[in-house]
Amino acid sequence: MRLKQLCFFLLLVTCNLLLAPDGRAVLTIEITQGAETGLPIAVVPFRWEGPGKPPQVVSDIIEADLARSGRFAPIAHKDFFSTPHEDRDVVFKDWRLLKAEALVIGGVKAVAGGKFQVQFRLYGVFKEAQLAGFRYTVGADMLRAAAHQISDVIYEKLTGEAGAFNTRIAYITREDARAGVVYKLQVADADGYGAQTVVRSPEPLLSPAWSPDGKRLAYVSFEDKRAKVYVQNLGDGKRETLAEFKGINGAPAWSPDGKRLALALSKDGNPEIYLVRLDTRELRRLTHDPAIDTEPAWAPDGRSLVFTSDRPGQPQIYRMSADGGEARRLTFEGDYNARASYSADGKLLALVSRHEGRYHVATLRLEDKALQTLTDTALDESPSFAPNGRMILYATEVRGRGVLASVSADGRVRQLLKFEEGDVREPAWSPYNRELQYKE
Amino acid sequence: MSMRSLVVVPILAILALSGCAGPQELPPVEDKSVGAEAAGAADQAPLEAEDLLAKKRVHFAYDSSTIDDEARAILEAHAAHLAANPRIKIHLEGHCDERGTREYNLALGERRAQAVERLLRVLGVAGGRVTTVSYGEEKPIAPEHNETAWRLNRRVEIVYK
């Protein structure tokens, strides 16, 4: 198993080198396992009609998205027999010879008003039929979003499930600058592009949590030398303090309707799970136990929560009704299970599970309580499901540095997200809604 | 190895639980630890106390808030110093190693700071003179990812105001 994984590692597919507007690479994504098992797809480089170079190479973005999902294996361009851009130029035999099951063609054209017209067609090679075809007219700043939307369409047509390319991730970075340590809460596209700093602090930041509409983040900041919970709008940067009681104010989790947050508060002496209403700030205590109760997460239906508690002597996952009452233990395998969160369909929990002193990302299938370990690194933390439930983003440590990684929910595909500098931790994958584009 | 950890883990867990159950659960003050006994030797007492007072950190076992003999000796020295200087206030910072989840570690760091606070109270330090905070695993003093670093990072820092 070890050797096999090492071999996969050596088969590194450097998927994408992303460039910030100033040309600096923000992050590279490497598929470290499972890239070879996807559906063969040919993405023909899109035709560019306009002066100079296109502001974004849309077809490269699409190809990288599809590869990153682990469900597609893009075919190398050098093997192509033809490079069609229009429907009339497609010769299906060319693609059957390459064993491509799907074909993507298209173009980007500069049009009036500094806008761009993006057009694409998706074909099933064996059916010899067009499966989708769309045209978008967008500004330069939305070209990447348009590319991710196209990736979502392709993913959905070919897998029957929603794609999660046009989403964002929030995470915390820690850098040792000359003037001292700097912590940043950042938001980037799901492919790591376009990172923006939401909060910067000389003191630790942790536990970012997306509101269900994707417009706000709750997080914990030590800027006042103790843990307080804040809620911040991404649109205008305005923020409010949600909890600043005595002791720990931590672990914010939005209810699915966005009206309440679950928190861990130790104002009564030890951490307990509370619900707080955003409008009235009315507090409701859910747990009553001398043990540590923390890391609440809502079920998608909003009727129950899971949380971490060390009432059996070590941390395990419990579930209770959002109306209070008895908590029932869910995890029995292993002596450390913590920080659970639900998949969108409510069937799986992602959590951190310790085996032989190593901390891995695992899933718990709620139906039969089957625990499946997905990773083999030692210090894995903060698992967060993609909104389509197919991938889990988490933090790990590679050669002494904190990095982000992702794994498919079945454990088959893994990848590393490598940032240029500093430690990266505490990833949180946004929900689908993205009507409000975060801008500088 | 696995047999051993099977035995050790429940013991640590029981110790951890007893550590947070309340002052009455702590060993009585008369139960003299190594540090306290050593302080009884007249010749070395002042030096010993000074050495202990210079130590502003106490360390903990993994996933535990139990105060061991070494930590107890250090805290007794600080309690004596606080008794002799009634206007001084202190701040206790609880910390953890990097293993495990951040929010759970935040809670564990608080439990460690509270365990130290409780012992200081038992040793006669008034509650109003001690404040606590937990930084969880966020502020390691040793950045490495190994047992040595982890042992150093599981700590409560005593900060004189």
From TrEMBL, chain A:
GO terms for cellular component: periplasmic space. It is found in: Periplasm. Residues 1-20 form the signal peptide. Pfam families: PD40, TolB_N. GO terms for biological process: cell division; protein import. Its main location: periplasm. Keywords: Cell cycle, Cell division, Periplasm, Signal. Residues 27-131 form the TolB N-terminal domain. Part of the Tol-Pal system, which plays a role in outer membrane invagination during cell division and is important for maintaining outer membrane integrity. The Tol-Pal system is composed of five core proteins: the inner membrane proteins TolA, TolQ and TolR, the periplasmic protein TolB and the outer membrane protein Pal. They form a network linking the inner and outer membranes and the peptidoglycan layer. Belongs to the TolB family. HAMAP family: TolB. This is Tol-Pal system protein TolB. It comes from Candidatus Muproteobacteria bacterium RIFCSPHIGHO2_01_FULL_65_16.
From TrEMBL, chain B:
It is found in: Cell outer membrane. The keyword Coiled coil does not apply. Residues 1-21 form the signal peptide. Residues 47-161 form the OmpA-like domain. It holds the Pfam family OmpA. GO terms for biological process: cell division. It is a lipid-anchor. Keywords: Cell cycle, Cell division, Cell outer membrane, Lipoprotein, Membrane, Palmitate, Signal. One of its GO terms (cellular component) is cell outer membrane. PROSITE patterns: OMPA_2 (PS51123), PROKAR_LIPOPROTEIN (PS51257). Belongs to the Pal lipoprotein family. Part of the Tol-Pal system, which plays a role in outer membrane invagination during cell division and is important for maintaining outer membrane integrity. The Tol-Pal system is composed of five core proteins: the inner membrane proteins TolA, TolQ and TolR, the periplasmic protein TolB and the outer membrane protein Pal. They form a network linking the inner and outer membranes and the peptidoglycan layer. This is Peptidoglycan-associated lipoprotein. It comes from Candidatus Muproteobacteria bacterium RBG_16_65_31. The lineage of its organism: Bacteria, Pseudomonadati, Pseudomonadota, Candidatus Muproteobacteria.
